[in-house]
Write a structure and sequence with these properties.
The complex is a heterodimer of chains A (263) and B (264). In chain A, 73% of the residues lie in helices and 2% in strands. Chain A contains 11 helices and 2 strands. In chain A, a hairpin with a 2-residue loop joins strand 1 and strand 2. Chain A is globular and about 60 Å long. With 264 residues, chain B is mainly α. Chain B has one domain. In chain B, helix 2 packs parallel to helix 7, helix 3 packs antiparallel against helix 7 and helix 3 packs across helix 8. Classes of the chains: A mainly alpha (263), B mainly alpha (264). At the A-B interface, helix 2 and helix 8 of A face helix 2 and helix 9 of B.
């Protein structure tokens, strides 16, 4: 465990050292949030609610998107693709550590910084926009935290599994790009899935994707009753188990095909 | 002068052809990128269309008008992706020393740096966007050919403005050998151009018109077509592009003059 904590600490320092990169990442993310908020604000106009969301709820949804995008969608997929394709992954295989654990530690460091920054940005937006829906019920916060942590792990493992395609082909960047884009839309990271037609929404609910943004956001907004939220957390946990198993299987199978090209 | 342009056009065609061939060699990778780009566009369209199931207008614009803004954003963005793709590799080009080779070649280092890499996948996705834009323009009430001409001219003007930004980013990279994310911040801020500029609050609108002129690039052409852009704003758009191009080219020349080779 200590070696993973050390990796986490080093990665934390490394991320903080590249301040310009971090700042630009955050400014870019903030532009997306500002854009979405403005769009929803115009849609709401003088209406009391739109698609079942009041103005404070919609503002909160957009702000949660900012946090969850920083917390969920920051995996190590592209690094893994690069490390497999260049053969650099060999150097990890001979070390006394599990690659997944190491990657998770690095990912966690990145998430720590980005979530911290996201909260700062939210504070700024709340000051400017006001009228944010803040749940008073600690149960909602607890359920949201649990849902968000599992969402982050599901993304990590799914992205990891897709990235292991690099063991078999040097062209895995394309599928990974496609997967990430599809996932962000299907997760509700740009807009609440309520806007989609009923059939498409039902189809998506049979996948793990809505559990990454849409579900945690609705939990925090108290749009789901606690008993139903607990049931859905069970479903999310099942998806997490499936994603972890798929990632482990893909990694083990990939290692059998690995030829250390370029390494 | 004409011979110079002809030579550079030949060179561009050659490097563009080579990068397209390279993309076609990676079929699975290219298919993934192509599908990803299509997914992004389809989802946004589905989103905008779904929104209009619930409202009649957004910021005073109908579905067709909003679609025109969105399509114009895509046209400008995709043309930039197709022709100015090289900037995304600028930092690597400088850090690995390849820029030194650009400087001793008998052609413009700016052309090599910014325009020599062509994204064929965006060229493929641009075709349906142009077709859809044609359909939208056709379905809008007849507004006269002058509006169409103004729309096309302002769209070209927007491409000029995007080029100026890409040149500035390339110059910044040559000057600092850092700021790998400079082009990505542009990409993220450009996200704001997906919606008509009127959806934003006044200070943001101001920033998008005079600061980072996303509105000039994406909203002005559509507004001109709909007859909502005054001659003064039209003149501003053209003047801004001229100034931005002149400033970015001067910055590029100054950066190259100060360049002292950052690699072996």
């Amino acid at each position: 465990m200590k070696k993973y904590l050390t990796a986490y600490s080093i990665a934390l320092q490394e991320t903080l050292q590249r301040r310009w990169t971090l700042l630009m990442d955050r400014v870019g993310g903030f532009a997306v949030v500002l854009s979405l908020y403005s769009f929803w604000n115009v849609l709401l106009g003088d209406k009391a609610s739109f698609l079942g969301y009041t103005r404070p709820e919609m503002l909160t949804y957009v702000l949660i998107i900012n946090v969850l995008r920083s917390f969920v969608f920051t995996g190590r997929g592209w690094q893994l693709v690069g490390e497999i394709s260049s053969g650099r992954v060999s150097s990890y295989l001979v070390r006394p550590l599990r690659y997944q654990g190491y990657a998770l530690a690095l990912d966690l460091a990145q998430k720590t910084i980005h979530v911290g920054s996201a909260f700062l940005e939210i504070g700024l937006l709340v000051l400017v926009a006001r009228g944010v829906f803040i749940p008073r019920d600690p149960v909602a916060w607890a359920l949201f935290t649990l849902a968000a942590v599992m969402a982050s792990l599901i993304f990590f493992f799914l992205e990891f599994a897709v990235s292991t395609l690099a063991f078999w082909t040097s062209e895995s960047g394309g599928p990974l790009f496609c997967f990430e884009l599809f996932l962000q839309f299907a997760a509700g990271a740009f807009f609440p899935l309520d806007v989609l037609p009923e059939g498409l929404r039902r189809l998506l609910s049979a996948t793990p994707f809505p559990y990454m943004v849409y579900f945690p956001a609705r939990v925090l907004l108290q749009k789901i009753a606690p008993s139903e939220a607990v049931r859905l957390l069970g479903v999310e946990a099942a998806w997490l188990a499936v994603a972890a198993a798929v990632a482990a299987a893909a990694w083990n199978r990939g290692l059998l095909s690995y030829a250390a090209e370029g390494g | 002068m004409i011979e110079e342009i002809r030579r550079h056009a030949r060179l561009w065609a050659r490097t563009a052809s080579m990068s397209m061939q390279a993309q076609l060699t990676y079929r699975l990778g290219s298919a993934g990128f192509l599908i990803g780009k299509a997914v992004r566009m389809v989802f946004f369209f589905a989103f905008v269309a779904a929104v209009f199931d619930h409202v009649k207008t957004v910021a005073g614009y109908t579905l067709l008008e909003t679609a025109l803004f969105f399509l114009t954003f895509n046209i400008v963005d995709m043309i930039a992706q197709i022709f100015f793709r090289g900037v995304y590799n600028a930092r690597r080009t400088v850090n690995e020393g390849d820029f030194d080779f650009y400087l001793i070649q008998p052609c413009s280092p700016l052309l090599r740096m910014v325009c020599s890499s062509v994204d064929a996948l965006d060229a493929l996705t641009l075709i349906p966007v142009l077709v859809m834009t044609g359909v939208v323009l056709h379905r809008l009430p007849p507004l006269g050919w002058t509006r169409g001409l103004l729309y096309a001219t302002l769209t070209l003007n927007a491409v000029g403005l995007v080029f100026a930004i890409h040149v500035a980013v390339a110059a910044l990279t040559v000057r600092t050998q850092e700021l790998e994310n400079a082009i990505w911040i542009y990409r993220d801020v450009m996200f704001m151009g997906r919606f008509p500029v009127d959806v934003y609050a006044a200070p943001v609108r101001w920033a998008l018109t005079f600061g980072v002129p996303i509105a000039v690039m994406t909203s002005f052409p559509a507004k001109a077509f709909l007859g909502l852009l005054s001659p003064a704003w039209t003149a501003y758009a053209f003047a801004l592009t001229v100034v931005a191009l002149a400033a970015s080219l001067a910055f590029w020349r100054a950066s190259v003059a100060r360049y002292t080779s950052s690699s072996s």
